[in-house]
Amino acid sequence: MSTGFAIEDLGENALLLRFGNTLDPDLNARVHALAGELGHDRPGWLLDIVPAFATLALCIDLEALAGESEPLEAVRRWLAARAAGEIRSPKEAPGRHHVIPVRYGGSDGPDLEAVARHAGIDTDEVIRRHTEATYRVAMLGFAAGFPYLIGMDRQLAMPRRATPRTDVTAGSVGIGGAQTGIYPRRGPGGWQIIGRTGVDLFDAARDPPALLGPGDTVSFISDTAKTEPPR
Amino acid sequence: MSIGILAAGLQTTIQDRGRPGYRHLGVGSAGALDPFSSMIANRLVGNADGEAVIEICLTGPTLQLARAARIALCGAQIEATADGREVPGWRRVDLEEGSVLKLGACRRGARAYLAVAGGFDLAPVLGSRSTDLRAGFGGLDGRALAAGDVLAIKAGHHRALNRFEIDRRWIDPAPDLDFNQPAVVRVLAGHDALREPQQLFAGEWQVGAASNRQGLRLQGPCLALADAGERVSEPVMPGTLQLPPDGNPILLLADAQTHGGYPRIAHAIATDLPRLAQLRPGESLRLLPCTRAMAQHLHNDQRQRLARMAIAIDQAPALNELR
Questions:
Q1: CA nearest B305: which of B172, B187, B143?
Q2: What total of structural domains would you count in chain B?
Q3: Is the Cβ of B132 closer than 8 Å to some Cβ of chain A?
Q4: Inter-chain touch A57–B23, beta carbons under 8 Å
Q5: Per-residue pLDDT tens for A99-142?
Q6: Residues of B numbered 160-199 whose beta carbons fall under 8 angstroms of chain A's beta carbons: which are they?
Q7: Backbone angles phi, psi at A176, to 5 degrees
Q8: Global pTM?
């Protein structure tokens, strides 16, 4: 695993720490290991720690650092020291495991057959492969609580729909390229929808509001019982 | 005390200073698009900076006051009357019980802010009263205001007299806010270089009709990247200038998504976000290169001007004491 990193400006009140430019599980594990470390002794000026696939943004309250003549430089040094230090093995990265029941196919998964055709396998095999893998929440983005899950069987990879759907149902489980994900809320979306879960992924009134945290792991089970539609 | 919404306006939302701390969960900051104007509106009515205000986009709502109230309107120049009497912006105005405050079209600028003494009695969600329109929470049920809504007002320090009265003093928002065309917006370098970097600064950019609280769609010269290779999604911020494949940049505003896959070619400085919030579809802007040191300097200057305004407002004799 490469231990190199670079720190870039992200506007005037955020820094971006870069481990790489690719969707690489090792780089992503490193992102979450460092995010966990930074979260442990979190200074008051650190507003947000935002993990992505191979990068990590820090949003900074410059007014809390008003005593510093070069506040962003001070933060850059603080971050560099931690990124260069001994980070715990990514295998020990903090995170919980979640098992999510999914109803595959039919009206819940209108693109399941298209994914099967694209992969050259039958729909049962798509479900078997989709439920067999353990995924990591590489990041939450696009929408509140939307998980980008990496670790999918390569054969299930399929490009996004040429024309996005205007109305994807809440709880829809989709495939976008090499990733799988879940739409927390009804809305437009371009991923291939293969199933749906009744699990509520995001509720602002809940603590924490998002069911899944960045760095958590997820597996799916096929749920043939009738599910209540998510709120 | 409460305010009833008789007509909604184009997109009238409750906003405060935004919702930091949740970008890792995919939750953006939201908050007033023009924080400069909303802060002054709050100060004029004696509210703390963090109180929620009503943000008005291009066409305003019609509201009815259940009790006498002190208000202030800042930001865009907006047509405003209370029972037919003109209500000027950038100053304290006391309105009587039962007044109908009719806010019409924004004549110049795009976002006006209405602060009410005491502030809106709404429960914060994830630490903020701002409406997150994309995620559907915060403000009033996570949505724009609609006719028939009723907003409760907290008791303020000031007990408004039951009469229509306009303070003779006003705040001049220049140089932080003007409506001159083209607007001048200063930007810091982004991560992704353009094939012809000077193209960004050479001409004027037009604000596209599809612009909203998430971002301004800019139309101008078609830009190309030095390196057009594939990219994976990375964090983005309000102020980030993204370049989608069609070559027309998007300047992200307060409702920016937390991550984006498009290249980041520049970042507008925080000092100029209020001016960006006031741009109307079809209006023009110019981009100027800026350094981080200059951005920090400009931001400190703006903060000092705001602090001086706050002192001037606090030291001015109360409206009722003038007689």
A1: B172
A2: 2
A3: yes
A4: yes
A5: 999 999 999 999 999 999 999 999 999 999 999 999 999 999 98
A6: 188-189, 191
A7: -130, 100
A8: 0.94
